[in-house]
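Exercise: predict the fold of this chain.
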Amino acid sequence: MTKFAVSNGYSLGALTVGETIEIAKDLGRSVSDVVIAEAMFEKELEYDEVLNAVEAAFNHNLQAIDVGMSHGKSFLMGQTAKELAENNFANKIIDDEFINKALVYTLAAQVGNHSVGLTPCAGTGDSCPYTGLFKAIKEFYGREKAVKSAAVMLKVGTIFREGKVTTGCNMEGFGAGSAATAAAFVELLGGTPEAMDKAIVLSLSPTIANPCTTRVMVAGLCAAHISGAILNGNLAAKLTMHTSLPINVPVDVMVAMAAAVHPVSAKHVVPVVNQYMRAFFKTNNEVESYIANEIKKSEQEAIHNTIKAANASVKKLAKASNSIISPFGQAVVGGSSQAVGSPTNTGRIAHYLTKGNIKKVKIELYPELFARRGINVPGILMGAVYGSHTGDGDMYHDVMGKVLSQEIEVEIIAVDEAQVQRVTIETDDVSSMVDALNRGGGRLVLRNASPSLEQARKVALELGIVVVEDERGEA
């Protein structure tokens, strides 16, 4: 195996997750075989020595689980794991006994972390699901499967360890934990290398940019992050092993994206999280005694103002929300009410402002929508050229051919202005333009229109298109 890897230009000791999986596919071996062989080559160890070392890596953290299951108490988690383990795990989180114990052991690891500490991988957060799952696998499947699954899990985890450069559960408890446990589940259950590739990608998807601050400072919230990694990893593994769910993103691209978004989240998302969660941070009175009173007073005023603003914001949302008897918007084809429904409705409004034969449609989209043009342009064109409803599936699939056959010119360009979706229709009589901002649920903000904004608002009302105000009060 090592001879094959070296002869094919792979750098043993520095294999990416994708390269590891590729070698396993090429040789018809399990991913754990490749991971273990790499460690044997890099560290000049025998097979059993690698397995022993992988197992030994969990020693301290397994002790932390024991503490968390017994007398340990966490200032953020209380004695959650002990409560769940009482009466032979009578209080189940999930009926699957194996997964249930993995979840309880994961929570116990975090309780133990606040008592005796954990040895961190990317951080202590991802050490929780790694150790919890390892303990459960060993208990239900035996040592060999546990260690081989752990080897794969740690191969993924150590890459996230290197990628974590700042705060962010996206590269730790939830993100790294999801990706690594997904790989472990596929290995454990005899899945193919291809399934593992897809499982890691799928498990990472909901974790991108997930912040960490709430997990480590606000009571209780950590439980959903670390145990969520187990549930998410298991879900991803089962979906990719048992279905033909199409996933075409290479695993190394997904990992690279997670690492790239990680510092962006820390810079832009975490400050907002801190603003809202600061009031609920666990504090230490002994530490606070060293903080100047004017600073503490200023912090309390900021907390008061944030909570007041939050309550007002939620009240505004509640006031504008739909009744439960009519909760949904109009049907939208194409897979996204935000990426397809809202721009399609912009095209529909533009259509009903025109007169005459359509000669050209100009579509201007902000970068995110422009990148998703494969799904939204058919919708925009069916709305702009034919006035079709967002739920017209037949037209959505036929429109590109119809527009081409009618020799209607189409121009699609990107504009560097957030949320913009602008549709201009040129005809041989009355042309139109609708300048809107994108909103989810097929809704939009009308900023400008020709022949007139007033006419555009009237058309939207007649078509049942929801027009909302933006943050500046524009409708």
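Check your answer against the key: Residues 80 and 107 are 7 Å apart (CA to CA).
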